[in-house]
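Tokens for chain A. Residues wanted.
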């Protein structure tokens, strides 16, 4: 079977097979082709009836280039949390700053796993619009979320240290009592992560 015939076979399976396991396998086969022609059927698969097919399509699109950014942004509204989690990963992996605002909303998702992945993605995008919502995420009840928020803030600060510090200080100044104490403690992780990044790159950072 030629490459073109193989793609046509799996596209047909993705669009018409009644078995979600077959459609999921079709997604994986199309993703492995690394062919731009598969982007459109994979975008359509973001609307598949089965959540696992949609999740796998999001992962595939996250490896195939910026042509999938806008459909992925819309898919952040999916009803299934694991689809939203994988979409957040895909948008971070594509590193397209059009996704910053949808990811900022996702860092407040009802599911902690989605919030964690959105925080990671915002760190990859290194956009200053994410600093305040990531600062708020340092107070998240779920440890992996605030850990990821701290790492994301450090990644952004590697480019914009003075701006990040300013936002963190302003955010802390608006807190009182135990919330402020908790924020200051968790901010130490951000500082440790930033030092690691600066040491790795041999840069002192902004003053």
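Reply:
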């Amino acid at each position: 079977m030629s490459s073109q015939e193989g793609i046509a076979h799996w596209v047909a399976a993705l669009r018409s097979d009644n078995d979600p396991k077959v459609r999921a396998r079709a997604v994986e086969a199309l993703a492995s082709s690394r062919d731009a022609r598969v982007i459109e059927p994979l975008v359509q698969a973001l609307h598949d009836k089965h959540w696992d097919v949609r999740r796998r399509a999001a992962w595939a699109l996250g490896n195939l280039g910026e042509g999938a950014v806008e459909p992925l942004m819309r898919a952040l509204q999916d009803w299934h949390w694991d689809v939203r989690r994988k979409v957040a990963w895909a948008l971070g992996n594509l590193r397209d700053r059009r996704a910053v605002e949808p990811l900022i909303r996702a860092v407040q998702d009802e599911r902690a796993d989605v919030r964690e992945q959105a925080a990671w993605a915002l760190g990859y995008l290194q956009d200053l619009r994410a600093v305040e919502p990531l600062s708020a995420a340092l107070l998240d009840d779920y440890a992996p979320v605030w850990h990821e928020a701290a790492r994301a803030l450090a990644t952004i600060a590697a480019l914009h240290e003075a701006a990040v510090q300013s936002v963190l200080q302003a955010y802390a100044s608006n807190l009182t009592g135990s919330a402020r104490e908790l924020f200051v403690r968790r901010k130490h992780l951000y500082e440790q992560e930033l030092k690691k990044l600066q040491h790795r790159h041999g840069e002192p950072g902004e003053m």
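Residues 158 and 205 are 7 Å apart (CA to CA). The radius of gyration is 20 Å.
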